[in-house]
Design goal:
The protein contains ten helices and eleven strands. It binds guanine.
């Protein structure tokens, strides 16, 4: 292996420790505990698991979390009424509506209702709009892209002037990651489903952020030697026995799964200068940055 491993778990722990310390200082000064309200609509198992991790992190860091669930058939009005109630609640500093929402709901209308001072996900049109404009500061930056940039800075990768390639243009990761890289003075290319000669584009990247949701799509020979590779992908794949048959879990009787990224790690680590593992790379950073954003929300609302 030639690449330096970027240990997201350790870096996220440092961020969380700092947040915990600041929260304790605020408590000691008699200020109210930061509070995060989560909104889960429907019964997606993955979304419920993510929200559960966010609540657990709040508890560990001395913050309040308020969990709100609505059924999968909730109406637009029910979701909007809940957001309005949370906007008006002074114990709630941050509001996180877990995405995706069920398809009958208008996500944009829900997100734009969130008070900008409580928009700890940074997805309200106002925060994203500010991120897209020169000289304007968003109050909050979306957590996963924020975590990606934090990792690059933490290991000393120079972003200014670098050729950065972002694989994927989702609202949650790809597009805000590209905007953040522009803010950091990188030259940015966004690769998407209509991009031609993707491998050649990726080969020019000094910094690659892969967030396209395609299992191990990026091969080792796509990586520029010495590049920094940030893999946001979280893809479940079957674990195989040495004879190639699917391994079965003794506990559950079901096929065993493991998580891999959008980058073929085994190949890429021999070429890259820096690389994040999956799991243990970007994943822990998303929650750490959400905690940092929630603390910031409390600091804005109760300085
Ligand atoms: N779904 C996947 N990632 C995220 C995230 O960072 N925030 C929210 N609200 N939903 C998500």
């Amino acid at each position: 292996m030639t690449a330096q491993l970027i240990d997201g778990t350790a870096i996220a722990r440092k961020v969380r420790d700092n947040v915990k310390e600041e929260v304790a200082k605020r408590n000691a000064a008699g200020k109210p505990k930061p509070g995060l309200a989560t909104v889960l609509v429907g019964d997606r198992v993955d979304s419920a698991a993510y929200v559960g991790m966010k609540q657990k992190a709040c508890a560990e860091l001395g913050m309040n979390s308020f969990h709100n669930t609505l059924p999968a058939n909730a109406t637009q009005e029910q979701v909007e009424d809940l957001v309005k109630k949370l906007n008006a609640d002074p114990t709630v500093n941050g509001i996180l509506v877990q995405l995706p929402l069920p398809s009958h709901l208008d996500e944009e209308r829900v997100l734009q209702l969130i008070n900008i001072e409580k928009d700890v996900d940074g997805f309200s049109p106002l925060n994203i709009g500010r991120l897209a404009q020169k000289g304007r500061e968003p109050l909050f930056v979306p957590c996963t892209p924020y975590g990606c940039i934090y990792l690059l800075k933490e290991v000393g990768v120079k972003i200014s002037g670098a050729n950065a390639v972002v694989l994927g243009r989702s609202n949650i990761v790809g597009m805000p990651a590209a905007l953040l890289l522009v803010q950091e003075n990188a030259t940015v290319t966004i690769v998407h489903s209509r991009t031609q000669n993707i491998a050649d584009v990726v080969r020019r990247a000094d910094i690659l952020i892969a967030a396209i949701g395609r299992t191990e799509m990026v091969r080792g020979d796509w990586i520029k030697p010495g590049a920094a590779v940030i893999d946001v992908g979280i893809n479940g794949v079957p674990v195989l026995n040495p004879d190639g048959t699917p391994a079965i879990s003794e506990k559950t009787g079901k096929p065993k799964q493991k998580l891999v990224g959008d980058v073929n790690f085994e190949e890429a680590k021999e070429v890259a200068g820096f690389i994040t593992p999956v799991p243990g790379g970007v994943g822990p950073m998303t929650i750490a940055m959400l905690m940092a954003n929630t603390l910031r929300a409390a600091q804005i609302q109760f300085p």
